[in-house]
Amino acid sequence: AELEAKLDDMDDELASNEDAEGAITPTASHNEAPTDEAEDASFMSESIYGKLSSDSPKAKRPKRSRRKSMPILHEHLEPGSQIKTLPAHNDTITALDFDIPFGTMVTAALDDTVRVWDLSAGRCIGFLEGHTASVRCLQVEDNIVATGSSDASIRLWDLSRAKYDPYATPEPDKSSTTDEEDDGLSYGNDDEDHSPPTPPPSSLSDCPLFSLEAHVDSITALHFRNDTLVSGSADKTLRQWDLTNGRCVQTLDVLWAAAQASSTIGTNTSSSSSWRPSVKNRGGGDMDADFVGALQCFDAALACGTADGMVRLWDLRSGQVHRSLVGHTGPVTCLQFDEVHLVTGSADRSIRKFAIQIWDLRTGGIFDAYAYEQPVTSMMFDSRRIVAAAGEDLVKIYDKAESRQWDCGPGDNRSVVERVAVKDGYLVEGRRDGGVGVWSC
């Protein structure tokens, strides 16, 4: 108790110092010359690129309750060790994401439910209710969750309002004959065949923030950062939203923008910027390609992968396509970029890694590529590894540090992995049977 009190005092002192520094920070001079718009017309200006590796201030969010500790158990396990298995849903997992290892996870499935999980205890906290159809995509960032649904709406949620104490000791099971306490970090499972646990009925009733409604068809991709959210829909448009007032501030017509980019570039360069007829899913199966398969935004930069196999880079300031990356022959299903690489996955059974000196598009090109036997349905990377779901009961992992590929999973012909997420070597995968597995990688 004394240690926790000291930690609280240190937090208060740091907050006071930050406020004091903010109060004496000088503002920019009003006599500075305005930036030449012509010099800032590139897809990624130098100022935006600099923000990728800087500690830029984040938009104000509801204060997150301080965690008593940061679990790092998985770092001491052998890669490929199973931490937990959750019978999360009764149908195929369509989307999942989590904040930190052993933190909070949100899952969505074709059973039309969205569930919130305490990964440390392996317990379902509750349901996010409000959508009238299945959720196709979601993102978890601190306390904030964004969900995009087949009902053409996007909903924002604040999990800090949940009526749930992650550190509360669960009621003892009087029917149990063991005196062992659950420390929340065990990776054994008492019963893998039981149905999903029923959460308290009103635990998340105060979490809804607001709904964004402007699309006229299913939301298939979204990404938000700070106060900006960008969504992609089966209505063939991208929309940029201002989360401070909940309004759509820009609509991008993908087909029109692609045609404009083609006519602007002219015939002296490749005509790859124009829209290509949708290519069939060569991986087989009954998977229908989403028109907008994946997207990610950072400041004014937006990367978007579509059903024609193209990855287009946009400038949200002008609403124009500034570069198109050609390489995939099937619909793009997933993508992610950092300050060094843009990695994309496709139904053409490959992941292509574009080595770009990010935002200096004159040096754009394919850095590496590797193929799988089935379509890539989900992909994410952290500082060391790229993980992918590729139509198997195993997760495909590429270790960037050792330049090797390996499989993570039981490999016992269980249900196919559909969705993956990884952070700091903590891997979560969702399957067609509604199960979720947690692994160390």
Give a written overview of the molecule.
- With 441 residues, the chain is mostly beta strands.
- It is built from 3 helices and 28 strands.
- The strands form 7 sheets. Strands 1-28-27-26 form a 4-stranded antiparallel sheet, with no helix packed on it. Strands 2-3-4-5 form a 4-stranded antiparallel sheet, with no helix packed on it. The chain has a 4-stranded antiparallel sheet with strand order 6-7-8-9, with no helix packed on it.
- The radius of gyration is 23 Å and the shape is globular.
Task: Name the descriptors.
single chain, 441 residues, mainly beta, four-stranded antiparallel sheet, 28 strands, 10% helix, globular
What gap, in angstroms, lies between the N and C termini? 35 Å
In terms of per-residue confidence, which ranges show pLDDT below 50 for 5 or more consecutive residues?
Answer: 23-43, 54-69, 173-195, 265-271, 280-287, 354-362
Please work out how many helical segments DSSP would assign. 3
| Oligomeric composition of the shown chains | single chain
**How many beta-strand segments?**
28
Strand order of the largest sheet: 1-28-27-26
Mean pLDDT, to the nearest integer, reads 78
**Radius of gyration, CA atoms, in whole angstroms:** 23 Å
Global shape: globular
Q: Which band does the percent of strand residues land in?
A: 35-45%
Task: Tell me roughly what share of residues is in helical segments.
Answer: under 10%
